[in-house]
Design brief:
The structure is a single chain. This protein starts with a helix and ends with a strand. Strands 1, 2, 3, 4 and 9 form a five-stranded antiparallel sheet that branches. The N terminus is likely disordered. It is an alpha+beta fold. The chain has four helices and nine strands, in the order αββαβαββαββββ. Strand 1 and strand 2 form a beta hairpin. Helix content is 43%, strand content 24%. It is elongated. It folds into three domains: 84 residues; 90 residues, Chitinase A, domain 3; 45 residues, Thrombin, subunit H (Beta Barrel).
Length: 237
């Protein structure tokens, strides 16, 4: 009888132990699956986040590159436009100008009202903007250089030394001519009188009893010139 009861108790312990083992195995399985799922999901989520983050960075870089390209295009366009509105060597331009000596004496101008005020008005002359090609040798060197970089409507004062204007004064260019020879040509010479030759205007610099000394230097040779220049146009004759 006691042996039978002991066997029943042992069987019950084995049964309970088996149930507990099954329960623990099941719990372990659930925990492992949950743990796996928890470990897997963050991985997927992180992968998704990384991919989304990568896509966002790529989009931002593309947007930034597009913006930079637009800015470069804009800057290049503006640079081109700026070059078109600034004087460069080889450009054909028109300018108004007032030419003065260092003491302020006006010797030439393209402006009629200024010419009249200065007593330099010539009714045979047309007063209008002066046109020339920059760097083509049509103007004195200092004037050519002085207009480089100007913009339409800009006013600039340019001081030009004699070496870049009409040259230094050369005494050897003062040559004597007999007064009688001039009189035979119908000329009564006087000091300071301008004469016109095939080489341009010359001046009677001095005289003695027999000769007049003709100065073949340009009348502005040896002088520093001051020009007030206004750019009127670029690219027009």
């Amino acid at each position: 009888m006691k042996k039978a009861i002991l066997l029943v108790i042992l069987a019950g312990i084995v049964l309970i132990s088996g149930c507990a083992g099954n329960s623990m195995d099941k719990e372990d399985t659930i925990v492992n699956e949950a743990d796996y799922t928890n470990r897997s999901n963050p991985g997927v989520q992180n992968g998704t986040i990384v991919e989304e983050s990568h896509d966002n960075v790529t989009d931002l870089m593309e947007q930034e590159n597009a913006t930079l390209n637009e800015e470069d295009h804009f800057n290049a366009s503006n640079s081109g436009n700026q070059e078109d509105t600034m004087v460069n060597e080889g450009d054909t331009i028109t300018v108004n100008y007032i030419g003065q000596l260092e003491d302020g004496t006006i010797f030439d101008t393209s402006l009629e009202d200024i010419a009249k005020e200065a007593g330099q008005y010539n009714p045979a002359r047309e007063y209008s903007p002066l046109g020339f090609t920059v760097g083509a040798g049509q103007m004195i060197k200092g004037f050519d250089n002085g207009v480089i970089g100007m913009e339409i409507g800009e006013e600039r004062t340019v001081t030009i030394p004699a070496a870049e204007a009409y040259g230094e004064y050369d005494e050897e260019l003062v040559q004597p001519i007999e007064i009688n020879h001039l009189k035979e040509m119908g000329i009564e010479p006087e000091v300071g009188m301008p004469l016109y030759t095939q080489h341009g205007q010359v001046t009677v610099a001095k005289m003695n009893d027999t000769h007049a000394f003709i100065d073949y230097n340009h009348h502005l040779a040896g002088k520093t010139l001051v020009f007030k220049i206004t750019l009127v146009s670029i690219g027009q004759e």
